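[job 4471] stage=fold_predict status=RUNNING
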Amino acid sequence: MPIRTNRGRAAVYRRLWSWPLRSPNHLIATMVGFAVVIIVFTSVIPAMTKGARGGATNAAGTSTSQVPGQVGVLPSGVPSISLPTKAPPPSATPSSAPVDPDARITADLWADAWITRPADDKSTTWLETLKPYTTEELLPQMATVDPRNLPTALDGVVTPKESHPDSVVFEVGLKGEGTLRMTVVKRADKWLVHKYDRV
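[job 4471] inference complete, writing structure tokens
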């Protein structure tokens, strides 16, 4: 006979929920049954879902491979076109060039002014003689040089060692004190010393 009242339904539900607590055997049986249900859901259902997805992928792959004019696939009989390769990067080493006579003149004048000690032994006076042949970036670096500690004579002539369209490296000997190396650069159609070293 079907249950037609709320009280009757509550009594049935109460019996169902209280059944596992009536004895230890009931509780163990309930836990085992619950574990079996969880195992079935966690193993069988994912496997079924994965198989369905794999079949759909295979079917889609089979159907798309047979569709003519697929994007990214050239039709048969069309010759392949080779794309142009990337141009090689420019060489880091500048090309060599003949020595500009004006660059040599600047190196000669700068070397003579560099070894010339001013009458007042002041650095400012010494820098004024070098200013016409020196870049503005190099002059502040030379402000701390004491001209009294510099060599007073050159050994040999100024000789080019490297020559490029916009820069030339010159060297000249210093009597008993190594070699003076100068890098002369072209600035607004004028050659100026941009760097020097004693080697």
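[job 4471] summary: The CA atoms of residues 62 and 130 lie 82 Å apart.
[job 4471] exit 0
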